[in-house]
Amino acid sequence: MVQVGLINRLSDGSYMIMASERLGTIMRGFVADVAAPGTLKWSGYYGANNADNAGTVLFGMIKDPDPTKCIMVGFSNSQNNFPDGDITDHKYSYNSYGDNSYDTNHLGLNLDGWAMKIDPSVIVADPNNGNALRPKLVWQKCYGSSYSDQFTGIVPSGSGYVVVGYTTNPNNTNSTYYGDIPAKIYQSGQAGAPQYRDIPDIWLAGLGPTSLTCTAGSTAPSLNGTSVTNSCPTTTVNLSSLYTGTPPSGTSLVWFNNSNHTGTAVSNPAAAPTGQTYYAFFYDNISDCYSPASQAVTANPSPCAAASVDCPKTQVSPAPVQGTPNQMFLIVTANVTTAGSFPVSVSGSGFSLYNGVTSVSTTTTGVQTFKIPVQYDGSALGTLTFSLGSNTCTANLSQNEVVNTNCNTWTLDKCTPQVVPPVLK
């Protein structure tokens, strides 16, 4: 069963429909945007999800100062197992027995005013409704006392809002049950008798721009640098390395390419594109608010060298003799298309880079040879693997052994011994 509560015409000509729908024993708020002539742009359910006889009804709606967002108000009587759907808190009801348990005899008297803010520009999965899509719930909060309280409308007021509703909070001297509501000015009947909470009073309340405390705070993130450069062969930068602190509780550190956190946050700060300026913020996703921006961070690009290696032309000189440790060179032939520095590695068959060498470099392009110093520890010859830049070559050195004393260089082309003529002096 669907009960339509309000229809508003938006500036784009579409209609925002706010209603409540009973799904079994649960009543959830329903919001939809319908474009003329009746095309559904989006819809979604909000409110309680788990409790029997839970009810969430929406009565009022207003556009937020941020034109992409809407604020809606109503009531909820979710009663247990928090978080219950979208409801994360609820006041206890003061039942006819005088304790703080849920009043199962007066289900209509266990209500809280409920406000929520949605962002229709961001469509996400609803975990409480089989991951059906709906606009993002930016924040929500219950307001009221331990008695029955409802919001029925909302209007803008300065940078915030004024909400109107009613409350049955009695003129009781026990402030435990007041919550967000002051004592009633007038209470007829027997003073202090719980059953007289049925007589409502009008309730006016002011909400701030977010209605929640922004835990992002007023202090910008402190970074340990204002520039970062990619480390080849990686062409992106790690912005996360610039912050080593702990964000305030309830917040996360996010990055934008502007100081006003407009647009979309950097999706992967550990691999951000170079050539841009970034700013860090603490972000409170409950109140949808940010801290001030950090100092600007420049992501400087460092061009990465590029080359293609001709693996079969690679040589090992002097040729390794199994069981005899020695120092030698790995001679690599490569066609360099972008000059620069190439990281190198070598492993297998007892080979390792010699004397801390980690890279080779060139200032010219074209076909060139690189002499990489390596150390052989005398281990059994088997698979040898090396890399230069993004290129990797592998050979099986156990296929051949050097038996000719005049043969002092091996090629990796099937590891065939190669005689090298003497060098002229």
What does this structure look like?
By secondary structure, this protein is mainly β. It has three domains: 206 residues; 74 residues, no CATH class; 113 residues, Immunoglobulin-like. It has no helices and 27 strands. The strands form six sheets. Strands 17, 18, 19, 21, 23, 26 and 27 form a seven-stranded antiparallel beta sheet that branches. It starts with a strand and ends in a 7-residue tail after the last strand. About 10% of the residues have low confidence.
List the keywords.
425 residues; mainly beta; Immunoglobulin-like; seven-stranded antiparallel beta sheet
Query: What percent strand?
Result: 35-45%
Number of domains: 3
* Helix/strand order: EEEEEEEEEEEEEEEEEEEEEEEEEEE
Shape: elongated
Count of alpha/pi helices: 0
Describe the sheet with the most strands. Answer: 7 strands, antiparallel
Structural class: mainly beta
Radius of gyration: 35 Å
Average predicted confidence as pLDDT? 76
